Amino acid sequence: MPETRLDTARIRAARREIDPVFLDTPLYRCEALEPCLGCAVSIKLETANPIRSFKARGTELVASRLADSASRAVVCASAGNLGQALAWSGRRRGLDVTVVASRFATRVKLDRIRALGAKLELVDGDHETARERAAAIARYDRIRLVEDSLDIETCEGAATIGLELVDTAPSFDAVLIALGGGALATGVGHVVKALVPGAEVICVQPLGAPALTLSWRQRRVVTTDSADTIADGVAGRHPIPAVLDDLLLVADDAVLVREESIVAGMRLLLNHAGLVVEPSAALGIAAILEDPDRFAGRHVVTIVCGSNVDVDAYHRWVSAAPR
Amino acid sequence: MPETRLDTARIRAARREIDPVFLDTPLYRCEALEPCLGCAVSIKLETANPIRSFKARGTELVASRLADSASRAVVCASAGNLGQALAWSGRRRGLDVTVVASRFATRVKLDRIRALGAKLELVDGDHETARERAAAIARYDRIRLVEDSLDIETCEGAATIGLELVDTAPSFDAVLIALGGGALATGVGHVVKALVPGAEVICVQPLGAPALTLSWRQRRVVTTDSADTIADGVAGRHPIPAVLDDLLLVADDAVLVREESIVAGMRLLLNHAGLVVEPSAALGIAAILEDPDRFAGRHVVTIVCGSNVDVDAYHRWVSAAPR
């Protein structure tokens, strides 16, 4: 049992606080992908819900607990998916939600945050600037700050995906997890290591935004000066020490993939699985494409974690090269 | 309680014979579609499974019952989705599956039927020719013929979607159902009329393949000489009398939509819901687009019934016009 900040019994109990529309998501073998990849591939699909990403599993926990407290206001920084999720969960419970995002964030994500009724504040700079601004708002207004991957609700919410994996899947050899702030990886990783310790937990990050992977490899926090990737959902630069500690306990590996592999992964998922995904959600497929020998003949699960894409960029990516 | 050939208690029991990978599919509000459509829209998504359509709900019943009998061989005619489903369900149980299809059927569907290990026989002519040939094979070889929409398993399998709708959905005002042979419409329609009689059951068929809609309107079987639609999954010409009888009991309306509305529906589902769908699965959205006043302000459920598209044709359709 990995001694992370997470608790398996608490994760199981957390399912009751999450709207069922986000739970028990599809998990299925996708044989049409397999000739291209050389291994058995199962997809855990986190996009067929009202906010098109897995993030509401965490914000449902945050919002349901906050709804029971005296304070009704909450703020988070977001690249776009956490903000949509918090807006959705907060609206349902009458919370006052503020989301801080980079003005360079994916437009459609910002539009959806507004449409869901949250107050959206844009900052010049990237996601790290948005995190600083959200923290300042929380201090100044004395309201709850939701810090993705640090706050235990975001990790244990994501971890419910891991429970569904181990409870439903026939045996699998490895799970490929998009690595951004670390909530998804530490959450799913904790459950898998606790309940199916033989399965490999592999985190995947873009080469252009490698901070947490470098940190995991060097076993100390490594920051980067910039991030350059189309995978906007995982483009952090300042890993959180407590999250790294957990990741060191649950991840068997952390790999970096090229942008062209992410695009190839998106295209494969569209053309052979009929799935529209955002770049972060193609990281697992990208990892297989870059190292097919590693996965040959094995049964791999990849979590398709989001589908909020800018339509024009998406069409450009998937039509740019041969299938 | 509509006196169709279907039985609600039997449908509930049937869930136990269906592989869980096909059950309890996502059902969720899709608010991003709503400004374009002028009504509340929920999606029941039947594409996130190993065969990318709802058809396995029926073939699971066929195959599990056949696996318990002495005969291990089965044949069906298919436009492509039933064949994939029967191939999948039969392979799992060691059945000998033959699928007859038109040589003009969607290539990727035929490829998947072969990949799933079924014997595929192609006929010159359309789906009605394939039906005749499948019946001839069954008579000659004395094996089980699966007739889509006539065989009760195909209707009651599809009807499990209706159970999930009425058990899970907050109240809805209407359900939009693609109308082809009639299994989906009579199945879901039976359950909705039995359990939520106030909800409107609306069947949607392409103007280019209107046989069952014309039959429903005239309360007698009407055949057509040809079918001309991109919605290959619903392009039948010879309605089955027993299916029409059931449809007359459960459908509140049957509407016909233009090809350009089907394409517009596919494009909306891609660009605002992130869903790749085959033309038949966009019929519900097409119906809203053609008659927005009818649905204004109401809560409509549409069943996204399949996503097996020819990739090149799909790209052509969705990129052909403005968003």
Which descriptors apply to this entry?
homodimer, alpha/beta, Rossmann fold, six-stranded mixed beta sheet, four-stranded parallel beta sheet, 14 helices
Write the layout of secondary structure elements.
The structure is a homodimer.
Chain A: H1 8-14, E1 27-29, H2 34-37, E2 40-45, H3 56-67, E3 73-77, H4 81-92, E4 96-102, H5 107-115, E5 119-123, H6 127-141, E6 144-146, H7 152-168, E7 174-178, H8 183-195, E8 200-206, H9 211-218, H10 241-250, E9 253-257, H11 259-273, H12 283-290, H13 292-295, E10 299-304, H14 311-319
Parallel strand pairs in A: 2-10, 3-4, 3-6, 4-5, 7-8, 7-10, 8-9
Antiparallel strand pairs in A: 1-2
Helix pairs in contact in A: 1-7, 3-4, 3-7, 4-5, 7-8, 8-10, 11-12
Question: What do these coordinates show?
Answer:
The structure is a homodimer of 323-residue chains. Chain A has 323 residues and is an alpha/beta fold. Helices cover 44% and strands 16% of the residues of chain A. Chain A has two domains: 8-53 and 152-319, Rossmann fold; 56-146, Rossmann fold, CATH 3.40.50.1100. The first copy, chain A, has helices at 8-14, 34-37, 56-67, 81-92, 107-115, 127-141, 152-168, 183-195, 211-218, 241-250, 259-273, 283-290, 292-295, 311-319; strands at 27-29, 40-45, 73-77, 96-102, 119-123, 144-146, 174-178, 200-206, 253-257, 299-304. In chain A, the strands form two sheets. Chain A has a six-stranded mixed beta sheet with strand order 1-2-10-7-8-9. Chain A has a four-stranded parallel beta sheet with strand order 5-4-3-6, sandwiched between helices. In chain A, strand 4, helix 5 (107-115) and strand 5 form a beta-alpha-beta unit. The longest helix of chain A is centred in the middle third of the chain and has 17 residues, at 152-168. Chain A is globular. The mean pLDDT of chain A is 96.
